[in-house]
Amino acid sequence: MTDKEKQAIFQDLYELYQEGELGDEAYSWMKSHEQQFQHVVIGNEQGSALIEDQNDYNELKRMKGFIYSLYFFFIVLSIWMTVWFYF
What we know:
- By secondary structure, this protein is mainly alpha-helical.
- The chain is rod-shaped.
- It has helices at residues 3-19, 24-86.
- 92% of the residues lie in helices and 0% in strands.
């Protein structure tokens, strides 16, 4: 088994390993490879946090654009109604 395959297995089983839901054989395998692949799991957690932050930023940016478009709509509507009322 290559290191990439071992790393993929470690990543797949890591959450179960932390929760203690693995069998004895899988738990011992994870324990023996923990030092080797721990950095990969930590890097993935940090990467997913950055992705979530980026998604939150994009959502806020989209909501800000929507609010500005509503402001623009109400200003145009107010001007149109004011002009229409006086004629």
